[in-house]
C-alpha cells in the first residue's frame, strides 16, 4: 500500500470514529439529556403564577366575614415595567396605587412578575394580564380586632393569628404565562392554562358565634357619632358573643396606616384596656352587703355628700343632690354616692376585696381570643382601701380597674341568676365549602353566688331603668331592660360613660355593655345608655 493510500485509510478511520462518536452523543442528548434541556428552555419562557385562597372566617349563620369579595390584579413582567416611565404612567390610570406606591412595588419586587391591584372597572391592559382573585378582607371593615391579621414574621392579632396554621391551608390555582426572549408577556389570559391544584373539601375555616347583622348594628351605633370606646353583646342563655367592637378600629386592607402608639387603633379595648368601672361597681358593693345579711328595709340618710376623715374633701352626689331618707334599692336606683360610700365603710375594705376575689372579678375571662394579651383587672391592696380610701373604691374610682369584658362577665352572671357561663367567640371548625366540621365544647356552668341575691340585684337594675339614672331608655315594647349606669371621672373636661345591662328585663335574651370614652359632660353615662337603647331597638326591629 502506497503512502498516499495509507494516509487516506487513516483519515477515513479517524473520520469514522468521530462520526460514530457524534452519533452516540446526539443519541445520548436526545434520549437522556433532551427532556431536561427542553424543560429548562420552557422554564426560561414559561412562568407559573400561584394564587391561593386560605380558610374563611364565618359568622354563626355561615355568612363569610373574610374571603367575601374579589379583587382584580394586573400581572406584568418586571422587565416590562422597570425603568419604563411611559408604561408606568399608562398603568397609573388602571391601578389602585399612587405613583410613589407603584415605585415602592417595583423596587420591592424580587420575582420576574409584578402583581398590582387594579381598579374594578379595568378589563384589559397591554403587556399584562388581569386576574380576579378572592379578596381576603372586605371593604366594610367589620369586626377588625377579632378577625385580625398575621404577617410573614408571625406578628399579628385576632383569629388570623390565633388560628394561622388552620386558616393558611389553601386551595391553590396555578396560571402558566408565556414570556418572550425579552421577558415580555405573550398572548392573552385566555391562552394560559389554569390548574386548580386542590379542589377537595378541607377543614381550614373557623365559625364564630358573631351575628353579622348585630355586629353591623353595634358598629354603626358607635361610628355614626365617632365614639371611642367598646361594646360587647352576648346571648344570655348560651354565652355566645354576638357582637364585639373596639373603637376606633383600623383598616385591615391597609394595616400599615394604623398608628399603634398614638391612637391605639390596634388595641382591642374589650380585653386589653382596664377602665374605672365607676358606679357599675355598686353592684359588687350591693352583692357584698347582701351576703353580709343587710336589712333591705333599712333607711339611710343622704345629705348630698359624705366625709370619711377630718380634713378630707367630701364625696358628693351628682350636683350635690340631697336624696334624703331612702332605702338601699332607692339608693341604687338613683346611684347615690353618699349612701354607697357609707355602706362600703360599714362593710369594710377587707369584706369588699374578698367579694371581688371570690367572684373572680379581676380574672381573665378567656373568650378564645388573644388570651396572651388579655389584661387582668386591677385592684388595690387592702391597706389602700382602709379608712378614707374606701370612698373611691365604693365609687369604682382609683382603686379598681376592669376591662369591658370583666364588667360584662359580672352582668352575665347576674342575668343568669348567679351562674357563670363560659363565654366564647368561637363556635368551631368549618370546611372551605362552608360546612360545619367540628363544634368546640364549652366549660360547664359555674355557680358564683346565690340565686336569691341575683334576683334582688336584677330587680334593683330594673328600677334603674324604670325610674332611675337610665330612665331615658325606651324599650318597653321590647320587654324593657335592666342595668347600671356609671360615670368615670378622668379630668374636669372629659369623662367615660358606662352602661351595662340586659333586655328584656324578665327572662333576658341579650346582655350588652357599653363604654364611651371622653364625653365632655358629667352625665356621660346617658351617652352609653343612648347607645345601648339604639342597639337593642335595632336588634328587635331586624328580627
Task: Tell me about this structure.
- Strands 12-11-25-24-23 form a five-stranded antiparallel beta sheet, sandwiched between helices.
- The protein is built from 17 helices and 25 strands.
- The longest helix has 43 residues, at 3-45.
- The model is unreliable at 37-44 (pLDDT under 50).
- The chain has 543 residues and is α+β, with helices and mostly antiparallel strands.
- It is elongated.
What are its keywords?
543 residues; 4-stranded mixed sheet; 17 helices; elongated; 5-stranded antiparallel sheet; single chain; 34% helix; 23% strand; alpha+beta
Task: Provide a short characterization of the protein structure.
The chain has a five-stranded antiparallel β-sheet, with helices on both faces. The chain has a four-stranded mixed β-sheet with strand order 2-10-20-21, with no helix packed on it.
Amino acid at each position: 500500500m502506497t503512502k498516499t493510500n495509507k494516509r487516506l485509510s487513516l483519515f477515513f478511520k479517524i473520520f469514522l470514529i468521530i462520526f460514530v462518536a457524534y452519533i452516540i452523543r446526539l443519541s445520548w442528548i436526545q434520549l437522556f439529556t433532551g427532556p431536561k434541556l427542553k424543560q429548562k428552555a420552557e422554564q426560561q419562557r414559561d412562568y407559573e403564577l400561584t394564587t391561593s385562597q386560605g380558610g374563611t372566617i364565618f359568622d354563626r349563620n355561615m355568612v363569610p366575614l373574610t374571603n367575601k369579595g374579589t379583587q382584580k390584579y394586573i400581572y406584568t413582567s418586571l422587565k416590562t415595567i422597570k425603568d419604563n416611565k411611559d408604561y408606568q404612567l399608562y398603568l397609573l390610570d388602571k391601578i389602585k396605587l399612587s405613583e410613589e406606591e407603584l415605585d415602592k412595588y417595583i423596587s420591592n419586587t424580587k420575582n420576574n412578575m409584578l402583581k398590582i391591584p387594579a381598579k374594578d372597572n379595568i378589563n384589559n391592559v397591554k403587556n399584562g394580564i388581569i386576574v380576579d382573585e378572592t379578596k381576603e378582607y372586605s371593604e366594610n371593615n367589620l369586626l377588625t380586632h377579632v378577625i385580625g391579621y398575621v404577617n410573614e414574621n408571625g406578628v399579628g392579632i385576632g383569629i388570623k393569628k390565633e388560628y394561622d396554621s388552620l386558616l393558611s391551608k389553601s386551595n391553590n390555582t396555578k396560571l402558566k404565562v408565556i414570556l418572550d426572549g425579552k421577558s415580555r408577556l405573550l398572548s392573552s389570559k385566555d391562552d394560559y392554562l389554569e390548574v386548580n391544584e386542590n379542589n377537595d373539601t378541607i377543614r381550614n375555616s373557623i365559625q364564630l358565634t358573631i351575628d353579622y347583622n348585630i355586629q353591623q348594628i353595634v358598629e354603626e351605633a358607635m361610628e355614626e357619632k365617632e365614639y371611642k370606646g367598646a361594646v360587647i353583646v352576648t346571648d344570655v342563655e348560651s354565652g355566645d358573643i354576638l357582637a364585639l367592637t373596639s373603637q376606633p378600629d383600623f383598616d385591615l386592607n391597609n394595616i400599615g396606616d394604623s398608628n399603634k402608639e398614638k391612637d391605639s387603633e390596634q388595641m382591642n379595648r374589650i380585653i386589653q384596656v382596664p377602665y374605672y368601672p365607676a358606679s357599675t361597681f355598686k353592684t359588687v358593693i350591693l352583692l357584698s352587703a347582701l351576703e353580709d345579711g343587710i336589712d333591705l328595709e333599712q333607711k339611710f340618710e343622704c345629705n348630698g355628700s359624705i366625709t370619711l376623715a377630718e380634713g378630707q374633701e367630701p364625696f358628693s352626689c351628682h350636683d350635690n343632690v340631697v336624696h334624703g331618707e331612702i332605702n338601699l334599692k332607692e339608693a341604687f336606683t338613683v346611684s347615690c354616692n353618699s349612701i354607697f360610700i357609707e355602706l362600703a365603710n360599714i362593710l369594710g375594705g377587707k369584706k369588699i376585696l374578698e367579694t371581688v376575689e371570690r367572684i373572680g372579678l379581676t380574672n381573665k375571662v378567656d373568650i378564645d381570643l388573644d388570651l396572651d394579651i388579655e389584661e387582668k383587672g386591677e385592684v388595690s391592696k387592702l391597706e389602700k382601701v382602709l379608712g378614707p380610701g374606701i370612698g373611691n373604691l365604693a365609687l369604682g374610682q382609683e382603686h379598681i380597674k376592669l376591662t369591658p369584658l370583666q364588667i360584662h362577665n359580672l352582668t352575665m352572671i347576674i342575668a343568669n341568676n348567679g351562674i357563670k357561663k363560659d363565654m366564647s367567640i368561637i363556635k368551631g371548625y368549618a370546611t372551605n365549602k362552608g360546612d360545619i366540621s367540628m363544634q368546640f365544647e364549652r366549660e360547664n356552668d359555674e355557680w358564683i353566688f346565690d340565686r336569691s341575691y341575683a334576683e334582688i340585684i336584677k330587680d334593683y337594675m330594673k328600677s334603674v331603668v324604670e325610674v332611675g339614672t337610665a330612665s331615658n331608655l325606651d324599650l318597653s315594647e321590647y320587654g324593657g331592660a335592666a342595668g347600671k349606669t356609671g360615670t368615670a371621672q378622668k379630668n374636669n373636661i372629659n369623662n367615660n360613660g358606662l352602661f351595662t345591662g340586659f333586655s328584656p328585663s324578665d327572662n333576658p335574651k341579650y346582655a350588652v355593655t357599653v363604654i364611651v370614652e371622653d364625653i365632655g359632660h358629667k352625665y356621660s353615662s346617658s351617652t352609653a345608655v343612648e347607645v345601648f337603647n339604639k342597639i337593642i331597638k335595632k336588634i328587635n326591629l331586624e328580627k
